[in-house]
Amino acid sequence: MLVNGIWQSKWDPVQKKDAEGRFVRQSSAFRDSVSAERVNAVVSQQKQALGVKLYVAYICPWATRTLIARSLLGLEEYIPISVVEPVLSDYGWKFGDFPGSTATDHESFEYMHQLYTRSDAEYTGRATVPVLWDVEQELILNNESEDIVRLFNRDLRPLHRSEVDLLPVTLEQQIISFNERIYESLNNGVYKAGFASSQGAYEEAYAEVFRTLDWLEAHFAEQRFAVGEQLTESDIRLFVTLVRFDPAYFSLFKTNRQRISDYSNISAYLERLLQISAFAKNTRVDHIKAGYYSIQALNPNGIVPAGPELDWYSYLEELS
Ligand SMILES: N[C@@H](CCC(=O)N[C@@H](CS)C(=O)NCC(=O)O)C(=O)O
């Protein structure tokens, strides 16, 4: 991480913990949007490019939220991406040759932390992905996936090539409560189980994860989508955790009461989403497995499991 703009060689890849050994995620520092003037300049063809770029990691569920939103809304041509390698280096996320990542000769930075110090020479905090980067001003506009998905959906609406509305006003309250229901217990819950540093903190997180999955299994007996009768941001948020569960969390994070493939309704939901190209093409199981299993604190020898064989891998192969 960075302290007053200086990269620290001794840093803990496991973020923070509280006194009881519970995992605590850092809050995001940059919270701006793309200006309406810039969007209008592109709509009126005064300008060709929006002048922003999205920095992501395919391993990262939060970054993948933004990739799926970008694809679903038809914003790919306006928002180029740069992809870091799945394995965190001693200097944090870096660009390089891992298949599907952006090579260093296509990128003006070598490490993600350089974007943070370019934006704020005194930055203190972790150099996380995703980042929405202002190419013109060379600074970070936003590094919070929740904001990025919403600003893509709302502020970039004039550029959408799709009718999808990820946060329709009529469903907003339901979406927010669904998101809250799954965030601490599942999206972040799997991390709380995986990075717990006490048996009690692990068991507490494990119980919450499976309480939520049991609830979702019942939910998808009746519902096709997370909320209402259409795709929303809640589906994106749920998907990014479900799709990582069997290949990574089940064994690495010890959330091993059941796999997603043992839940028939949740599996059917996951497969429905994987038939939509925005979900399938932004799911890179090679990055997910290489990245999670490289976390030394949890897997000191770095051995990447060969399995599992999952039925839904065929949807990804069709696209590759
Ligand atoms: N609040 C952020 C969280 C992003 C986040 O935690 N990203 C992780 C990867 S999944 C990261 O970049 N970690 C690097 C680090 O902690 O140093 C968001 O949702 O955008």
Automatic annotation (TrEMBL):
<dbReference type="InterPro" id="IPR036249">
    <property type="entry name" value="Thioredoxin-like_sf"/>
</dbReference>
<dbReference type="GO" id="GO:0004364">
    <property type="term" value="F:glutathione transferase activity"/>
</dbReference>
<feature type="site" description="Lowers pKa of active site Cys">
    <location>
        <position position="249"/>
    </location>
</feature>
<dbReference type="InterPro" id="IPR036282">
    <property type="entry name" value="Glutathione-S-Trfase_C_sf"/>
</dbReference>
<dbReference type="InterPro" id="IPR004045">
    <property type="entry name" value="Glutathione_S-Trfase_N"/>
</dbReference>
<feature type="binding site">
    <location>
        <begin position="126"/>
        <end position="129"/>
    </location>
    <ligand>
        <name>glutathione</name>
    </ligand>
</feature>
<dbReference type="InterPro" id="IPR047047">
    <property type="entry name" value="GST_Omega-like_C"/>
</dbReference>
<feature type="active site" description="Nucleophile">
    <location>
        <position position="60"/>
    </location>
</feature>
<dbReference type="Pfam" id="PF13409">
    <property type="entry name" value="GST_N_2"/>
</dbReference>
<protein>
    <submittedName>
        <fullName>Glutathione S-transferase family protein</fullName>
    </submittedName>
</protein>
<feature type="site" description="Lowers pKa of active site Cys">
    <location>
        <position position="292"/>
    </location>
</feature>
<dbReference type="InterPro" id="IPR040079">
    <property type="entry name" value="Glutathione_S-Trfase"/>
</dbReference>
<dbReference type="GO" id="GO:0005737">
    <property type="term" value="C:cytoplasm"/>
</dbReference>
<feature type="active site" description="Proton donor/acceptor">
    <location>
        <position position="191"/>
    </location>
</feature>
<dbReference type="Pfam" id="PF13410">
    <property type="entry name" value="GST_C_2"/>
</dbReference>
<feature type="domain" description="GST C-terminal">
    <location>
        <begin position="168"/>
        <end position="292"/>
    </location>
</feature>
<feature type="binding site">
    <location>
        <position position="93"/>
    </location>
    <ligand>
        <name>glutathione</name>
    </ligand>
</feature>
<keyword id="KW-0808">Transferase</keyword>
<dbReference type="InterPro" id="IPR010987">
    <property type="entry name" value="Glutathione-S-Trfase_C-like"/>
</dbReference>
<feature type="binding site">
    <location>
        <begin position="144"/>
        <end position="145"/>
    </location>
    <ligand>
        <name>glutathione</name>
    </ligand>
</feature>
<dbReference type="InterPro" id="IPR016639">
    <property type="entry name" value="GST_Omega/GSH"/>
</dbReference>
